[in-house]
Amino acid sequence: MEQGGLAVSVFQDAAGQGAGAVDAAVSLISGEDIDSKIMIPFVLVTRENLASFKE
């Protein structure tokens, strides 16, 4: 991206995915229904915000 070969990418939030999985498991254990698909938002990575993902 810094060299210009890639315009954008996405950051898949592993911590958010883990938290979503735990929340779903707790809901199931409690007898609650859950959606068959749980969407964890991703973050668009651009040249402008790339530095914040390098920290």
From TrEMBL:
It comes from the Bacteria. SUPFAM superfamilies: Periplasmic binding protein-like I. This is Periplasmic binding protein domain-containing protein. It comes from Litchfieldella anticariensis (strain DSM 16096 / CECT 5854 / CIP 108499 / LMG 22089 / FP35) (Halomonas anticariensis).
